[in-house]
UniProtKB/TrEMBL annotation:
CDD domains: TM_PBP1_LivM_like. It is a multi-pass membrane protein. It comes from Futiania mangrovi. It comes from the Bacteria. GO terms for molecular function: branched-chain amino acid transmembrane transporter activity. Keywords: Cell membrane, Membrane, Transmembrane, Transmembrane helix. This is Branched-chain amino acid ABC transporter permease. The chain crosses the membrane at residues 12-28, 40-60, 67-87, 93-114, 121-142, 171-190, 220-245, 257-282, 294-312. GO terms for cellular component: plasma membrane. InterPro entries: ABC_transp_permease, LivM-like. It is found in: Cell membrane.
């Protein structure tokens, strides 16, 4: 019953969050809020999906952005194919979306089957090696990917089911709905028995294996889910930019996602999303004043991590828990003193 109540609560919060996003995007005439939030939808899913591996499963991936790029390129290449759009017609966008997410999941399955068998440091660097292989493939396969220029000519946005993705409002609403749906999916996964199994593996994989859990299979499922959600983030960014670019598969993109998690917090569900918001705002503000944005952003991240020794939401949560525990201790002390006084009388 408690699980059902928690699901209802999370679902209502997701609906309320979607309503706020739609109110901001549709109620403000200036395009900046829509553009900024759409970029947050994409990079937020990248960071949140990576935290499914880092924060919940204990797998630190240095190459997670490969799935982000794979989803974006798959979606863009399908819509640029006249044969595909001609055959699918009005359904080309939803079919391309499903194909991009499914293709990314299959790609993650192949990569994960190789990587999750390895220990932490080898896992991290092997994921980076696979990412750089994809990046090299994108750069060298110029006839298909456009090389270092990215997909040329833009991505078609045909109308489907009355939704015109060439209209910025329709496009924003579509991206917002997909974003909230993916967040809800991640929430259900992390709060399910499967999610608590991931936490057991993170804390002590050997003991988890002794309990009869197939650790390899659980890690692989987590890896595939995380890759698929990152691919959806790439689809959103491809829709937003009407293109796909090799920088999405570069190692720095994965590093940026890790920075988002470190900045926002890895033990609180929405921590990486807060980190994505703060990092994007910080990047926009710093670039308006100096060209040395990487130095300034690095200093800020170091100050937060070294000063708080955790992400922002992690710090707030721990502070709240400490205050609650202090209140309980004071209440217990008062009760014991009152009981002692009554016994003395």
């Amino acid at each position: 019953m408690n699980v059902l109540l928690e699901f209802r609560r999370d679902f209502l919060l997701a609906i309320a969050g979607l309503a706020v996003l739609l109110l901001i995007g549709l109620g403000v005439d200036h395009p900046w809020p829509r553009d900024f939030l759409t970029s947050i939808f994409a990079y937020g899913l990248l960071a949140m999906s990576l935290n499914l591996l880092i924060g919940f499963t204990g797998l630190v991936s240095f190459g997670h952005a490969a799935f982000f790029a794979f989803g974006g390129y798959t979606f863009g290449l399908l819509l640029q194919s006249t044969g595909f759009t001609g055959a699918m017609g009005a359904w080309s966008v939803p079919v391309a979306f499903v194909a991009a997410a499914g293709g990314t999941a299959l790609y993650a399955l192949v990569i994960g089957a190789i990587c999750v068998r390895l220990s932490e440091i080898y896992f991290a660097f092997l994921t980076l090696a696979f990412q750089m292989f994809l990046y090299s493939l994108i750069i060298s396969w110029v006839d298909v990917t456009g090389g270092d220029q990215g997909l040329m000519g833009g991505i078609p946005r045909p109308e489907f089911l009355g939704v015109d993705l060439s209209n910025p409002y329709d496009r924003y609403v579509t991206c917002a709905i997909v974003f909230v749906a993916c967040l809800m999916l991640l929430r259900v996964v992390t709060e399910s028995p499967f999610g608590y199994t991931l936490r057991m593996i993170r804390d002590n994989p050997t003991r988890t294996a002794f309990l009869g859990v197939n650790v390899f299979r659980v890690k692989l499922i987590s890896f595939v889910v995380a890759g698929a959600v990152a691919g959806v983030g790439g689809v959103i960014l491809a829709l937003f930019t009407s293109g796909a670019y090799p920088e999405w598969a570069y190692w720095a993109q994965s590093g940026e996602a890790i920075f988002m998690i470190m900045l926002g917090g890895l033990t609180v569900f929405l921590g990486p999303l807060l980190g994505a918001v703060l990092l994007r705002i910080l990047n926009d503000v710093v670039q308006s004043y100096t060209t040395h944005s990487e130095i300034v952003i690095g200093i800020v991240i170091l100050a937060v991590v070294l000063g708080l020794r955790r992400g922002i939401l992690d710090f707030i949560r721990d502070l709240w828990v400490e205050r609650e525990q202090s209140s309980l201790r004071r209440a217990a002390d008062d009760t014991s003193r009152s009981a002692g006084g009554e016994a003395g009388r």
